[in-house]
Design brief:
heterodimer; A: mainly alpha; ABC transporter involved in vitamin B12 uptake, BtuC; 76% helix; 0% strand; B: Rossmann fold; 6-stranded mixed beta sheet; 4-stranded antiparallel beta sheet; globular
């Protein structure tokens, strides 16, 4: 129980820190000028909530993909969705360089092209689907490299900053992202018991009464939709989806009624913290948030791994 | 007594190869059937087919209705399957493994754990156990299932002598309580201890179903395994040759 309490206290502390920190430090509890109010509530708060929702969605998708594929190394981008979304985003940038939303629209379309391609291999079972996903990821990386080679020089910075994760101008309203976070977590909890049984392997799950084919289809769709939304909102942010579910298993046990809510919160927390650091350390410039998720998350995870072992 | 499960002209395949062709038999409550045969003959595959976990040519009926007419959750209430050891990657504990087997209306975990001598292991992760301890966990998980038909794939594999004996005694007790038991075994003494009927499979399509008294003899088993089996009194033992 105290672990949950710590998680909730950490959210409150990180939200306050996130509101206060930036190029211009502001005390969120003090009386403010009009400009400070705008910075706090119209710029920083939506961005913090976007980071929280995207981080949570990535961690949920990671937890689902790991169980779906029976592979602890799986993460949201394992089936090539990041590559296809990036290729879509760069295509959008190439054809509509002046448009504010072309990259997001391209990323969303690209993510779904990647998902639908993988779906053709879903009936082959976990291992072959994973193999197909890894090969497709290599294919999309090649397509992306080709597009980047053809992209005019002035578009390269935007393309690279998006590819390393960028929460500075998400085109998806924060309310939609938070609603998606809630819906995804709710759907996950409805499937929690079946997911627990899937931890024992597909045959054991079926023998215990789970319709594994149906569950796999639902999980694949759910995890893919969540990944597509997250990647559209913030570009490709690695590490959160891989490590947060494992971290939460270490802290809360293997069963999904604990792992899923803890991952949804823990993933949010990590990205919120990483984004706060990303826009503060070299302010007014920004670091790519994907770099910081790894720099913050890797030592924490390794420390816990050593302690638990 | 009416049959729980019946096979009619069932053909079991693996990778397109026919392992068992045209097998017909019936399984009844309070009866133990042992499946014997060489490695790769299709014993485990037959169990998977009986559990409805893989498709089969021919008919398998549970209480007179085709297996395919039952939903997975309905089947799980009738048939409990003990097969391969579950994966250990995700840190599932023994207690959680048993919880998942017991379900909402399942048996008492403490009783199952005590019976299989794993009470002290409840909080350990499956990945930290020996193969024998994991096998005992699987047997405890099976004991928590209220299904009238048990399918077991080499339940004494990995077990030490004490727990092998306990496992066979437990299966005999379950049979006496009216449970139908279908199990793959390799040990001939264990098969003799529990089998009412046998299914002999040779991996070349041939399968024979019959009473244990008729089929458990040195000639039949030597032919089945292509290995010398001797009869010594009431015992059937492999012939390891002259003592050194």
């Amino acid at each position: 129980m105290y672990r949950w309490l710590i998680l909730f206290i950490a959210i409150a502390a990180c939200l306050i820190l996130g509101l206060a920190a930036g190029e211009h430090w502001i005390n969120p509890f003090a009386a403010h000028s009009g400009l400070d109010n705008t910075i706090l509530w119209e710029l920083r708060l939506p961005r913090l909530l976007t980071a929280f929702a995207v981080g949570g969605l990535l961690a949920l998708a990671g937890a689902w993909f790991q169980v779906l594929l029976g592979n602890p190394l799986a993460e949201p981008y394992v089936l090539g969705v990041a590559g296809s979304a990036s290729a879509g985003a760069v295509t959008g940038l190439m054809f509509m360089p002046e448009s504010a939303w072309a990259m997001s629209a391209g990323a969303f379309a690209g993510a779904w092209v990647g998902i639908v391609t993988v779906m053709f291999f879903a009936h082959l079972g976990s291992n072959r689907m994973l193999l197909a996903g890894v090969v497709l990821a290599a294919f999309w990386s090649a397509v992306l490299a080709l597009l980047l080679a053809l992209l005019p020089e002035q578009g390269l910075y935007r393309a690279f900053s998006w590819m390393m994760g960028d929460l500075s101008h998400s085109d998806i309203p924060v309310s939609i992202l938070l609603a998606a976070w809630g819906v995804a977590l709710g759907c996950g909890l409805l499937l929690a018991r079946a997911l627990d049984m899937l931890l024992l392997g597909e045959r054991h799950a079926e023998a215990l009464g789970v319709n594994v084919k149906q569950l796999r289809r639902r999980l694949l769709l759910l995890a893919s939709a969540v990944t597509a939304l997250a990647v559209t909102a913030a570009g490709t942010i690695g590490f959160v989806g891989l490590v947060i579910p494992h971290l939460m298993r270490l802290l809360f046990g293997s069963l999904h009624k604990g792992v899923l809510p803890a991952s949804a919160i823990g993933g949010g927390l990590l990205l919120l913290l990483a984004d706060t650091a990303a826009r503060t350390i070299i302010a007014p410039a920004e670091l790519p948030v994907g770099i910081l998720t790894a720099i913050i998350g890797v030592p924490v995870f390794l420390f816990l791994l050593l302690r638990r072992t | 007594m009416a049959a729980l499960l019946t096979l009619s002209n069932a053909t079991v395949k693996r990778g397109g190869n026919i392992l068992i062709a045209g097998l017909s038999c019936a399984f009844r409550a309070g009866e133990a059937v042992v499946i014997l045969g060489p490695n790769g003959a299709g014993k485990s595959t037959l169990l998977l087919a009986l559990a409805g976990l893989i498709p089969v040519d021919g008919d398998i009926a549970l209480h007179g209705a085709a297996l395919g007419d039952y939903s997975r959750s309905e089947l799980s209430r009738h048939i409990a399957w003990q097969g391969e050891l579950p994966p250990t990657e995700f840190g599932v504990s023994v207690q959680q493994r048993l919880d998942l087997a017991a379900g909402e209306a399942g048996g008492d975990i403490a009783v199952g754990a005590q019976d299989m001598d794993i009470e002290a292991l409840l909080h350990r992760a499956l990945g930290t156990l020996s193969s024998g301890e994991r096998q005992r966990t699987e047997l405890a998980a099976l004991m928590l299932r209220d299904a009238p038909l048990w399918l077991l794939d080499e339940p004494t594999a990995h077990l030490d002598l004490k727990h092998q004996i306990h496992c066979i005694q437990m299966l005999k007790a379950q049979r006496a309580q009216g449970r139908a038991i279908i199990t793959v075994l390799h040990d001939l003494q264990q098969a003799m201890a529990i089998a009412d009927h046998l299914i002999l499979v040779d991996g070349k399509g041939r399968a024979e179903y019959g009473a244990a008294q008729t089929l458990l003899n040195s000639a039949t088993l030597s032919q089945l395994f292509h290995a010398p089996v001797m009869q010594q009194g009431a015992m059937l033992i492999p012939d390891y040759g002259e003592e050194l």
